[in-house]
Amino acid sequence: HHHHHHHQMVITTTAATEKRSQLSLWEVILQESRSISAWAALSAAVRIAVSDLVHWSQQEAGSRHIPPQYLPTISIVAKGILRCFCPSRVSHSPGFVYASGWVLVLIQSTFGAFPSLPIRLCETILGRLSIHEFLLIVPVHFACLFSTIVALKHTMPEELAATAFEAIPYSSKNPWWQDFLREAAVNALFVVGFLVLPELLRVNKFRSWIAFFLLYPLYNMPVDAEGMGSTLGPTIVYGLEFDLHDWYRIAGIMGGGIVAGIIMRTIFPDDRRD
Hints:
The relative contact order is 0.17. Helix content is about 65%, strand content about 0%. The longest helix has about 35 residues, at about 25-60. By secondary structure, the protein is an all-alpha fold. It has helices at about 1-15, 25-60, 70-85, 95-100, 100-110, 115-125, 130-155, 160-165, 175-205, 210-215, 215-220, 245-265. It is globular and about 60 Å long.
């Protein structure tokens, strides 16, 4: 039993982000705005790349330069490579674009903050951020998201901008509480998985990036009647055609962050006083 307890300590002390940040509020704002702006730009690039790949793997016979008899083989190989790195239904997995493990970790290690409100909310419940800091972060998050997108929309070629910032088409056929609960469940699982799995793997001598692949099924989990996956963040505003019909979706996403925080406080608390 003693060994198990030691193991538990190892998990909890190497928390995914360092303990309560000793940043001034101004530094918190700067850190958040840099992270969010970089993330908005990176998401746009990822979305263009992914949609190009999807489009390209669907165009079987559109190419002139390759003899037609090789096309099926080439497209099968391309799809195979795609499948290894993307979730199976990538056009229905906006979370893969906005909340890909690689992207979140890259932004956090470069600019200091995870560009994800549910994760930040979970960190607040864990006591890594004060409530004051969290309340400060939310308006900064949306302000930077909007301003970066508007800036990019006006500087990018139109057809690229159309792909990068297209609103994500969620269906409202299901009763709202059903989608709300689905969003909350998927987001709670994602946040806990994202913060805990890399640590568990690291402690057990595995490579921590394997965790990102373990999260793939969550990108595909449908959160509406048409089988669209969650954005895993209130990025529905990403298309700038924000609709108040979607309030419950954002509420569900943030609710997932709260549930994740409660789960982690119970099972993987940061500091155990024993």
